[in-house]
Each structure stands twice: as structure tokens, then as C-alpha cells.
Amino acid sequence: MSTRVAIVTGGNKGIGLAIVRALCRDFQGDVYLTARDVGRGQAAVASLSSEGLKSSFQQLDINDGDSIRAAAAFFKDKYGGVDVLINNAAIAFKVADTTPFAAQAEETLKTNFFATRDVLTTFMPLIKAGGRVVNVSSFVSCRTLNQCSPELQQRFRSEDISEEELAGLMQRFVDKAKAGQHKQDGWPETAYGVSKTGLTSRTSVRGSRYLYAGLRQARGLGQALSEADSRVRVGLEGGPQELHVLLGEAGPLPAAGATRGAAATGGRRSGFI
């Protein structure tokens, strides 16, 4: 039987590092954290090693197509595929950041939605039978959706929205932000929120499973291990119970709505109610 492998993108700090730490303790197989910066990635591996936890590093810049393809080729050659892929890599501008909103919108959507889409497109053919894909989103996506116009809300909640239409909506937000017309077009003033609304919706379109970050509101998920650079936190200190939220045990993941922050199954939008 081949060795199982789990990958966490953006795993060198914050939420990603917390997930890697939990996987190192409880996942039966090899655990890889990826990061854009080689030095920071290797430093994270060394830090985990000092805790007695074994992990490995693979360079991956999700905004670089060549980097995505190189990482995919590495895992295909070494493991014949991937058992667990956790798409955690993302960015969020600070509230006090003075970068023009148009630039924030373009950069945030490029990374959090379009680059994550590219990772999924490349890695999905490598996911082994019984494997899991987790897209780390945020409860902020629910609040953002409720701030959108009725027309946009209807499309995001639609059961027949396609990947192409969704990508078009994300690009429309960026274009309107550049023109200073996003509010008139029905969008709220939050690039991060829109990016996570798009990611959550895309996960549902693909019938994948997803996890909401911001687990501090969920009972029994332990205290936050770390505060990420963005405004979300994750609690994974409890080990197997919390890891089940990500990966489940044998069989399907917990039912949608069982716990806020739990992974949802199939095309059900537990966050879009």
C-alpha cells in the first residue's frame, strides 16, 4: 500500500500551520506544508520538528502556474497522487491599509479565488479514490453575501450557477472596483469577503467539501492556536475531534449544520442559508 499524503497550502503560519500541526499528530501518512517562500517554509518545518512533529516542505506559489504544475508533478511522481488537499493559502489586507480599494480587490481576488481555482484545476485529477479536498473559507462570506444586492445574492445561491458564471462574477467585482462602481453594482466594500463568498460558492459548484474558518464560534473546537494575518482564527488544539471536522474518519464528513465551522458535504451551501 502506498504512503498516504496530505498537503496544506500556505502552511507556514497562522491557520495553515495550526492545521499542519494537527495533521502531524493525527494523520496516518506524510504531511506537507507548502509556502511561496522557501526559507519561511523550511523554518516552519524546523519549528514543528522542535515540537517533535514530522512534516515536509514543498515550494508552491499559488499565483504562479509553473509553480503549481511543478508541485503537482512532484506529488504525482512520489506518491502517485494526493490523499488530502487543504487549500488554505490566502491574503487579506489590514483594515487600516491605505492601498486603494481597486488594487486590494484585484490582488485579493487573484489569490483567494482565481489562484485557488487554478490549484484545484491542476490537483483534482491527482486526488485518489476516497481522498478529501478542503477549501478553507470564512463565515465572513455569509455576512458579505447578505450585503450584496438581491440580484447577486440570487445568483450566488442559485443551484444552477456554473463555474464560468461564478468566475465572471468575480471578475465583474474586480472591474467595477477599478472603475469605482462596485457599490452601485451591488457589491459591499470588502474584497476579502467577496473572495471568500466566491470560494464558498465554487466549492459548492464542484461538489467538494469545505470548512469555514472562524471556528471560535463553534463549541468543542478548543481555543485558538494562533491568530492569522487576516481576521479569522482557527481552533485545532483538541486533536482528533477537531481533525474530524477537516477530514472525517471513515465515511462521509459530518452533516451540514451539525456544528458551525464543520465541513459540509456535496453541493449543499450550509453557509448560504
Automatic annotation (TrEMBL):
Keywords assigned by UniProt, alphabetized: NADP, Oxidoreductase
User: Which residues are the signal sequence here?
Assistant: none
Give the Gene Ontology MF terms in alphabetical order.
Answer: carbonyl reductase (NADPH) activity
As recorded in UniProt, coiled-coil segments are: none
Pfam families according to UniProt? adh_short
Q: Which family does it belong to?
A: Belongs to the short-chain dehydrogenases/reductases (SDR) family.
The name on file for this protein is Carbonyl reductase [NADPH] 1
